């Protein structure tokens, strides 16, 4: 190998080394963004599961209250039938029982002081479902962002091995796509319907 060829080879190696440093920096930045989107995604997934359980529990409580209310309303209706057939001595006691059942049924329907009437439980359950849907939408965006970052890391790594700098540009585009999906997940999770 001549001195000129050796010099040319050294210049090429120096240029490649500088490019590799830039690609390594791109990979490091992608890894950082991947860690952030994975953390946000895991948090959103946990929130989604938690709110789903909360909504299911509230709907179960709602059903139990509805069944109890139906039983009490039925008892009050039967009491009204019994009232018509009762002798005068028992009518006040039967009427008091009917009134108590009617009050209990009304309390089962709406109990604002405890928040445990069927109306309040349904409202809480719907709110938990909304929060669940919000967290699920965020989760899907963060997952897509993570996928973009992971593919970007692979392509940037392939750039170092192959020397095909077009892969680095595609990796950069995927970085922007991942950042875009992360931003959507954070601030506008329902802009794109992904699930």
From TrEMBL:
<keyword id="KW-0472">Membrane</keyword>
<feature type="compositionally biased region" description="Basic and acidic residues">
    <location>
        <begin position="121"/>
        <end position="132"/>
    </location>
</feature>
<feature type="transmembrane region" description="Helical">
    <location>
        <begin position="167"/>
        <end position="188"/>
    </location>
</feature>
<dbReference type="InterPro" id="IPR025570">
    <property type="entry name" value="DUF4337"/>
</dbReference>
<feature type="region of interest" description="Disordered">
    <location>
        <begin position="107"/>
        <end position="132"/>
    </location>
</feature>
<feature type="transmembrane region" description="Helical">
    <location>
        <begin position="23"/>
        <end position="41"/>
    </location>
</feature>
<keyword id="KW-1133">Transmembrane helix</keyword>
<protein>
    <submittedName>
        <fullName>DUF4337 domain-containing protein</fullName>
    </submittedName>
</protein>
<keyword id="KW-0812">Transmembrane</keyword>
<dbReference type="Pfam" id="PF14235">
    <property type="entry name" value="DUF4337"/>
</dbReference>
């Amino acid at each position: 190998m001549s001195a000129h060829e050796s010099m040319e080879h050294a210049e090429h190696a120096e240029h490649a080394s500088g490019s590799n440093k830039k690609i390594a920096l791109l990979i490091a930045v992608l890894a950082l963004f991947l860690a952030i989107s994975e953390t946000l995604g895991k948090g959103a997934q946990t929130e989604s599961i938690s709110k789903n359980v909360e909504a299911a529990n509230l709907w179960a409580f709602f059903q139990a209250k509805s069944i109890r209310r139906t039983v009490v309303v039925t008892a009050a209706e039967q009491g009204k039938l019994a009232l018509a057939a009762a002798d005068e001595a028992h009518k006040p006691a039967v009427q008091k029982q009917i009134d108590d059942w009617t009050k209990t049924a009304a309390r089962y329907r709406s109990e604002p002081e405890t928040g445990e009437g069927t109306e309040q439980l349904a409202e809480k359950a719907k709110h938990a479902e909304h929060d669940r849907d919000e967290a699920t939408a965020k989760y899907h965006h963060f997952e897509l962002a993570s996928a973009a970052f992971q593919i970007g890391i692979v392509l940037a790594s392939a750039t170092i091995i192959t020397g095909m700098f077009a892969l680095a540009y595609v990796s950069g585009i995927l970085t922007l796509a991942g950042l875009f999906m992360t931003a959507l997940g954070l601030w506008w999770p329902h802009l794109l319907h992904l699930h």
